[in-house]
Every structure is written in C-alpha cells, then in structure tokens.
Design goal:
mainly alpha; flat
Length: 203
Amino acid sequence: MPTGYTAPILDGKITNFKDYAKLCMRAFGATIHMKDESLDVEYEERKPSEYHIKALKEWQEKLTELSNMSDEELLEKRRSEIMSDIEYHEKQIIKHDNNYSKLMSILNDVQSWEPPTEEHTGIKKFMTEQITETLKYDADSKYHKLEIKERQKKLKELTIEEVKKGYIKDANYNIQYHIKHNEDDIKRANDSNEWVKKFLNSL
C-alpha cells in the first residue's frame, strides 16, 4: 500500500529523484512549520514566531505602566487581584462541596448494592474506585480553604515595598523569558532554513 510520499510516484505526479526528495523533506523537523500544508506545496522559509515579540512588548508596556502608578494605585491594584483570587476559591469551594454531595449520594448506593453473582463484584469495585478518585480531585475543598487563608493573610500584611518588588520581579522575569524564547525561535528558524538550503543544493 503506498504512503503519502510514494503515492505520487505511483500516480505519475513524481517522476524523478529531486521531486521525490523535496517531497520527503516534509517529514523532517526543519519543515515542521508546514505540517498542515498539503504535500505538494512548495517549501517556504521558516519564520520566527510572533508570539514572544508581542508578549515582550506587552510586558515592557506593563512595566512602564506600573512605574507610573502611585503607591496608593499599586496597593489598590494588588488588593483587587487578591480579592479576585479569594472570590475564585470561594466559588471552587461551593462547586467542590456540591460535587461531594452528588458523588457521595451515588457512592452510598454503590456500597449498599449487592452484586448478583461473584462475577459482578468487579464492576462494584470499579464503580467505587471511579467515585473515590473523583472525590479526591473534584470534591475536596481543603486546598481552596487553605488558599483563602493564605490570601487573607497577604491582605493583612500587604506593604507597598512588597507590592513594588513583586510586580517588578514578575515583569522582569517575563521580559527575560520572552527575550530568550524569541532568540531561540530565531535560531531555530535560521537553523531549519539552513538545513533545507543545504539539502536542496545537494540535489
């Protein structure tokens, strides 16, 4: 049975080594940026992603914006973020508590059910395991309660020095992260294009 790479030979679309080699080139990492293109599309040079350039610009603007804010504005911004986190965890507690009630209702029925034969004990065990696993991850609100306590503590101990330091650290980390990944993207694109250039020149 022909593959996507040999079918064009059998149907006469490819009749020489050079065209076959160019088609097979698409199976290699240097042309990963064309993975969604059809096999007969001509090679296009790989370009670095725009993602890190855009993200870098956003973080640089954010750092400038933070630098221009007053101490009161910075404190209010941080308080608002912490309050949003608390709200999120409060909603999760309600959701997990509801999940707990629903799951326990069914689990009680599963546990009181008597399998009709020895061969049916496996399904009882399976049903029990499914619910107990789900209880661990989707019906335990302990984590969210702890997170609320942590954030309430942060609210009480909030200082402008800590807020400024946190924002600047976060922005600088993200700026450096996107600079590095943009440089890596440029290198990958250049390396891929060089690999293809050497390959095509050898045909």
